[in-house]
């Protein structure tokens, strides 16, 4: 396990940024698909709201412990997830009123 500790912290920060931005790209793709689709969302409100809390927690955790990769990528993911949440909730509201 000593090899693990020989990897510089900066390498973990870079990898954290890459992985974190990948998650944001996936969320952006989902936003695009939800926005373009006229169908009822297949995502539940609980699911999208749950991820708002997850991303929010990790963004705050990153701020608290000065982990840039965590707060930058989770902050971005939080904003994107809030957009997705608004789209899904609007579609859900629209489907109930029809």
CATH topology: Monooxygenase
Please state the CA-atom Rg, rounded to the nearest Å. 17 Å
List the uncertain runs.
none
CATH classification, class level: Mainly Alpha
Write the element-wise H/E pattern from the N-terminal end onward.
HHHH
| Helix percentage | over 70%
- In total, how many beta strands? 0
Major sheet details: none
Overall geometry: elongated
Which percent band covers the strand fraction? under 5%
Total count of domains: 1
Termini separation comes to 59 Å
Known CATH architecture: Up-down Bundle
Structural class: mainly alpha
Descriptive notes:
- The protein has 98 residues and is an all-alpha fold.
- It has a single domain (2-97), classed as Up-down Bundle (Monooxygenase), CATH 1.20.1280.
- The longest helix has 30 residues, at 68-97.
- Helix content is 85%, strand content 0%.
- Helix 3 (45-64) runs antiparallel to helix 4.
